[in-house]
Write a structure and sequence with these properties.
Rossmann fold, UDP-galactose 4-epimerase, domain 1, 7-stranded parallel beta sheet, 3-stranded mixed beta sheet, 13 helices, 14 strands, binds nicotinamide-adenine-dinucleotide, binds 2'deoxy-thymidine-5'-diphospho-alpha-D-glucose
């Protein structure tokens, strides 16, 4: 692993991962390949060009365009592909699944095919705990069948199956990580934690879906990046690795913690109509990644605290996002919900 392609590297986790690798490995070359959808943002990478001149490049491109993908891998002589590129927001997948199927399923196939043709040494797929579906009790193991319930989760599960098929059929050296909810710097403020933090900072209502008793494992993004790095170096080709803290938090408790950290009143919480098909709980068994020697450095609560601090300190980053397209999306998603919502 010397010359990496990070697809979707202008997004939240991919940009943190690119920075992590460049800082840690002085001999590594990193190429970020990203379409720059609404979620892609060059501000996420703006420090990298000067800090890592000669070791970092950005190419704007779509993972669904085979010719551009192949040309980029060839031109930059890339030996490893790490695929973060995806449509990632469950609520948007419910409104309009089309781009999810295109990018998450077909785009992954295009990357696999290019990796096979050009004999890439490792293809790593960034997947999600959502492919296991709702987990009322216990914890999902990597060998469990996938049972996705939203168009987003179904598209990610489809991609995982194709990645595994390329390993079995063509012997492509692949690995997959299935991460739980990441939080931290540069997360687009449509996801619940940055949405609630930035709304609370502006004394706007926090739209909590349903009873707020859904459970998630909120992990700090840099812990997830460490895990992906470890799997790239020490993971067994053909294997899947769950990545999470292995603990859980209810959305209601996460919301109160954010308000407490910001010194804001709980009257900002609005209970609004639930997400359709809302998975109440995800939980992953993390013994495999732990056996590789990985431990998360942050608990869910610490991850939330660090995230709140980053958004407080970086208004320059998120204020300009919460305009234009974001406002349109916000009205469509929350206009009627907030109108029907109630205080807790
Ligand atoms: P994000 O939405 O912040 O970023 C996605 C990036 O992909 C953006 O930069 C976007 O421009 C790019 N992109 C979208 N379509 C593309 C295309 N067709 N071609 C090239 N680039 C394209 O996403 P994220 O939260 O950073 O998630 C990254 C990956 O991690 C995704 O695969 C997601 O499914 C997975 N994941 C996310 C989480 C989480 O909590 N955020 C947890 C587990 C797994
Ligand atoms: O579990 C990993 C997944 O985590 C990733 O694969 C996805 O890309 C990522 O978006 C995230 O999915 P979730 O649906 O869990 O994240 P989201 O931030 O959208 O919602 C987290 C929880 O908060 C969920 O139970 C729904 C709830 N929620 C969300 C929003 C946006 C609310 O109560 N109100 C909201 O406005």
């Amino acid at each position: 692993m010397k010359r990496l392609m990070i697809t979707g590297g202008a997004g939240f986790i991919g940009s943190n991962f690119a920075r992590h690798l460049l800082q840690r490995y002085p001999d590594l070359f990193v190429l970020v390949y990203d379409k720059l959808t609404y979620a892609g943002n060059l501000d996420n990478l703006r420090d990298l060009g000067d800090a890592f001149a000669g070791r970092y490049e950005f190419v704007r491109g779509d993972i669904c365009t085979a010719a551009a993908v192949e040309e980029t891998i060839r031109t930059y002589q890339l030996d490893t592909v790490v695929n973060f590129a995806a449509e990632t927001h469950v609520d948007r997948s419910i409104m309009d699944p089309d781009s999810f199927i295109r990018t998450d399923v077909y785009g992954t196939y295009v990357l696999l095919e290019a990796s096979r043709k050009l004999a890439v040494e490792r293809f790593h797929q960034i997947s999600t705990d959502e492919v296991y579906g709702d987990v009322p009790v216990g914890a999902s193991r990597e060998t469990d069948p996938v049972a996705p319930r939203s168009p987003y989760a179904a598209s990610k599960a489809g991609a995982d199956l194709m990645v595994q098929a390329y390993h079995v059929t063509y012997g492509l050296p692949v690995t997959i990580t299935r991460g739980t909810n990441n939080i931290g710097p540069y997360q687009y403020p449509e996801k619940v934690v940055p949405l609630f933090v930035t709304n609370a900072m502006d004394d706007e209502p926090l739209p909590l879906y349903g009873d707020g008793l859904q459970v998630r494992d909120y992990q700090y993004v840099l812990d997830h990046c460490e895990a992906v790095d470890l799997v790239l170096r020490q993971g067994t080709p053909g294997r899947i690795y769950n990545v999470g803290t292995g603990t859980e938090m209810r959305n209601l408790d996460m919301t109160h913690l954010i308000l407490e950290l910001l010194g804001k009143p709980s009257t900002l919480i609005r209970r609004v109509p639930d997400r359709e098909g809302h998975d109440r709980r995800y939980s992953v068994d993390v013994s495999q990644i732990r056996a590789l020697g990985w431990e998360p450095e942050h608990s869910c609560a610490q991850a939330i605290e660090l995230t709140v601090r980053w958004y407080v300190d970086n208004e320059w980053w998120w204020r300009k996002i919460k305009t234009g397209e974001y406002k349109e999306y916000y009205c469509q998603q929350y206009g009627w919900r907030l109108a029907q919502g109630s205080a807790t």
